[in-house]
Amino acid sequence: MPLRHLFLKVLPAVCAVCARTGAAAAQQPTRSDSARTDSLRRFTLESVTVSVTRAPTDIAHVPLAVAVVGRDEVARGRATAGLDEALVTVPG
């Protein structure tokens, strides 16, 4: 019988603690909300020209994967696509 009384006294306290932690967790913004806001920002990147050998080289003889994504290809993409989605077809 005393164990039952102890259980009945402790149970409301445990329920109150669980309810408070659940309410506190509901008030904190999730990472997915902040990540979504960050991904909707627009970025304008500067043009980059890379020249190493300063000699014209056929793209077939370059030892690395090279892909050119032009302005028109980016403009044709979806406005909500991130850079990772825009470059999904680019190797590397």
What's a quick, concise take on this entry?
The chain has four helices and no strands. By secondary structure, it is mainly alpha-helical.
Task: Count all strands and give the number.
Answer: 0
What is the mean predicted local confidence, pLDDT?
Answer: 68
- Oligomeric nature of the chains: single chain
Cα Rg? 28 Å
Topology as a string of helices (H) and strands (E): HHHH
Low-pLDDT parts are none
**What would you call the structural class?**
mainly alpha
Strand content: under 5%
Q: What is the number of helical segments per DSSP (H or I, 4+ residues)? A: 4
Overall, the morphology is: rod-shaped
Largest sheet, strands/sense/barrel: none
The tally of domains stands at: 1
Description:
This protein is an all-alpha fold. The chain has one domain. 49% of the residues lie in helices and 0% in strands. The protein has 4 helices and no strands. The chain has helices at 2-27, 31-39, 71-76, 83-86. It is rod-shaped, with a radius of gyration of 28 Å. The mean pLDDT is 68.
Please supply descriptive tags for the structure shown above.
mainly alpha, 92 residues
Set down the secondary structure blueprint:
Elements: H1 2-27, H2 31-39, H3 71-76, H4 83-86
